[in-house]
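Page 42, continued from yesterday. The earlier attempt failed because a stray header line got pasted into the input along with the sequence. Redoing it now with the clean sequence only.
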Amino acid sequence: MELKKIVGITVLSSVILFSGSLSSVNASVSTSKMTVKNSVKEEFPNIKILATGGTITGSSESSTDTTGYESGALDIETVIKGVPQLKKLANVNGEQIVNIGSQNMSNSILLKLAKRINTLLASKDVDGIVVTHGSDTLEETAYFLDLVVKSEKTVVVVGSMRPATAISADGPLNLYNAVKVASTKEATNKGVLVTLNDRIGAARYITKTHTTAVDTFKSPEQGYVGEIASDKVLFYNKPTRKHTTQSVFDVSKFDKLPQVDIIYGYQNDSRYFYDTAVEAGAKGIVVAGAGNGLLSDAALAGARDAVKKGVVITRSSRVGSGVVTHETSDDKDKFVTSDSLNPQKARILLMLALTKTKDPKKIQEYFNEY
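This time it went through. Structure tokens are written below.
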């Protein structure tokens, strides 16, 4: 009996010792898991979301209201909290630049946004940028950033067509996809990208084509550069024109940009729009001409007189796609042609070109290159 007790005690002691060893091992494994988990989290890319407002932060009292909502009603922190899945992609934090409908986007805000992006991307603590933006002028901001951002790190501009309060709001998934693209190494050095409706577009080529549909952003001629499918970022093309680090345009020291106006061509138009623009201080005028950027005789007279007063005229087209070809008459009139840029993007490039030169020949080179 005594022996059994001794044996029992011995066995019991061994069990206790073994249990203690297991506890130590478990504690060690648990600590290791925590260390690995923390290490993985630290290895997540750091993505900064810069918010400017728009439909993606819009709100309405009715869940079926997709047009009469208030743009920019929600702040970026609220929007980020509404997409908790972002935590699985990156270390995300937001910053409110402005909170407006994009129809109110101004040159001063563009400059503020571009300077902030360049400052952030110069830091080792930021791996990519997502800009939330209203869809109406999103393509203009994206193209502006494409020309002035000085980094190969990824910048993605994202918006939505339905407010955050709507049934089947597209904003949350668009934002998730934008962060995913910004976190993807394959997206680097592709210029500024635009992500909506599971598609990835180059800022140079993408444009809004429908007033309300969620698939409104398209690249009619050049096509998308990629897509998001089955939670994977897939790239098939890349922009061929100069952008970001290849660009000669630097706005770091600018507080304002040259005034450039757009004049729309139509039947029975007149020259007074040109005269008025010149009197109002325009340094450049983009003509949204008919067909291949054609001007009526009356408009042509106004444009030619504007050139004589030092204003740069750029012929674009109201058609929506295609190249405006450069003719011998353009050289005679000292006109610039916009290549495949639509009027609103031609305005962006002309503004930046005028910060470098007023020579139409040199500006034409910019339109051929960017």
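Notes: The chain is about 35% helix and 20% strand.
Reminder to self: strip header lines before submitting.
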